[in-house]
Amino acid sequence: MAIDYLAADDENLIRARARVGDAEIIVCTDGTCRFDGGAMFGVVPKTLWSRRTQADEQNRVMLGLNCVVVRIGGKTVLIETGFGNKIAPKLKEIYCIQERLPESLAAAKISPGEVDVVINTHLHWDHCGWNTVLGGEGTAVPFFPNAQYITHAGEVEHGRRQWERDRVSYVANNYEPLIESGQMRLIHGTEADILPGIRVECFPGHTAQLMAVHIESAGEHACFISDLLPTTAHLDIGWAMGFDLDPLRTIEERKRFYARAIPERWTVIYPHDHRIPLSTVGTDDRGRLHVIESVRDIPASATEPFVVRPV
To answer: Where is the Metallo-beta-lactamase domain positioned along the sequence (predicted)?
Structure first.
């Protein structure tokens, strides 16, 4: 893995660049948001999680909204699309939503029309919001007009049921217009190839069909792990989110993921870590999980991977 840079400034619109074999990875951003710390760390006491991230006066922690561009085999793939710009003003205020993905893509010199594939690992509102924007008549239209959108069929089914537990997270105009137009491909089963070098795999727990995205080229491997591991503060096996529908399954799926990712030294890409968007993961002599190589708060001129302290 060759990491090119990450600017220390939290306002930097390009959070990281990396190369995995012949694939170029650019971590763009929809900005930051703030979620309740208790919801983000579930049953983990605040006395523990507050050692890793700081809460504001309303007990909210800052999260990134990482949207990952992958250039591979002449194709441009975008993984996740953030909150978008269709959020009601009150919710936008509560969650401090910034709507920055278009300017982040522009900073990476990518126009919406250049994107060939958009992958939504699940359909929570903070992962698929820029799938669509409101057109002149107030109807949702694709923001990426030439892209094939991809998500799991089980996510659509779950969203349509509008369960009291999580219905606020499923916003129909982020995906239903794309299904109706035939622009969204629905995955069935637990794995699927998307393009040569890009495939998805289910890691249930956060949702029943949560997908990770594998990026493989020239013997190297990166994985956008989605909300199985939202940030580096969640590396511990048992630190599941309160949002997870099945936290016990999250724990088992993390074990399954680490059993491959650690010995094979995968580059792990996190959806909500604004300051450490990607890293490799390892264990110390006591078996504790921690970041090994990362790009944490280093100057934009840096060109080499950095070793950081354990989280």
So the answer is: 64-265
The conformation of residue 177, written as its DSSP 8-state character, comes to H
pLDDT in tens, 256-289: 999 999 999 999 999 999 999 999 999 988 989 9
Domain boundaries, the chain: 2-307
Residue indicated by tokens 């009291």: 164
Reported as a single tens digit per residue, the pLDDT across 22-44 is 999 999 999 999 999 999 999 99
Q: Say how far residue 296 (Cα) sits from the centre of its chain.
A: 17
Owner of token pair 């069935």: 188
Supply the DSSP string of 178-242, one letter for each residue.
HHHHT-EEEE-SSEEEEETTEEEEE--SSSTT-EEEEEEETTEEEEE-GGGS-SGGG-STT---T
Kindly state the DSSP code that residue 189 receives in the 8-state scheme.
Answer: S
Tell me the CATH number for domain 2-307: 3.60.15.10
Q: Taking the CA atoms of 203, 208, 211 and 212 in sequence, report the sign of the dihedral they define.
A: negative
Query: Half-sphere exposure of residue 231, counting CA atoms within 13 Å on the CB side?
Result: 22
Q: CA angle at residue 295 from 35 to 289, to 5 degrees? A: 70
Element (H, E) at 227: none
